[in-house]
UniProtKB/TrEMBL annotation:
Annotated protein name in UniProt: inorganic diphosphatase
PROSITE patterns: PPASE (PS00387)
Cofactor section: Mg(2+)
Source taxon at top rank: Eukaryota
Amino acid sequence: MAMERRSLAMLPLGLFAILLGQLSSWCFAGIGRLPSRRGLPLCSVAVSEVTTEVRGKEGSESYRRYFFAKDQEISPWHDLPLSSEVEGEYFMVTEIPKNTKPKMEIATKESMNPIAQDIKKGKLREYHGPIYWNYGYLPQTWEDPQAEHPELKVKGDNDPVDVVEIGSRAHEQGEIVKVKVLGALAMIDDGELDWKILAIATDDPMAAELSSLKDVETKLPGYISGIREWFRWYKLPDGKPLNSFGFGEQPLDAPEAIKVIEETHGFWKKLREKGDSNLWVG
């Protein structure tokens, strides 16, 4: 069995000091503590202490990447923090590094929610061409399949909220990265709402120049339309129809994207409180 463990925190040392000294501030929106099965308070899961361990063979159905903090196994969906110390900045977990093809994703139905390669019709999924951005999700979020969007009239896809990170550096799989939110695309995939948060890593050289979609269009022309069209077409070779986008196919700017994050964080809290027989929620 192949095994690998490494630290994935990619934060400035100064921020580590702040986070370690003010752990209580990580209890975003009143979230309490982890269940006693792990005996580890949520606010003790410092990003700087998180490591991962690979089990199984890469490129096989057995492959899994598990997450640990203080040598205790944790869920990268339920136990990692969402919000950071800075307004509009959040933590993402990278599932698919840029310029790669394997369709890796968090296993929402498995114990401890490791990262695994998606399987469809008995085969490991790969994109038909590489994705050009880092792709992952926001911890402590959930797109509720019972909640209908009042304007789009579609319901959530039953997954954490996706993030498309447009920075220059390819992340590591499982890397926890602090990102600045720039906007969002309301993708509709097979009748389900599948939000794509557009963001950039806060340590990227371009991060200081980008705070809005207008900045992205000015500094990185074509990026937003490129992301939209990539996600519109990527399932076509599998015989699936083109994906569509709400709001006249226009992206929402950062303030509206943050509202999406706050709403789906609220959905996640309800999920944790009520549970779900089809999902592993701890």
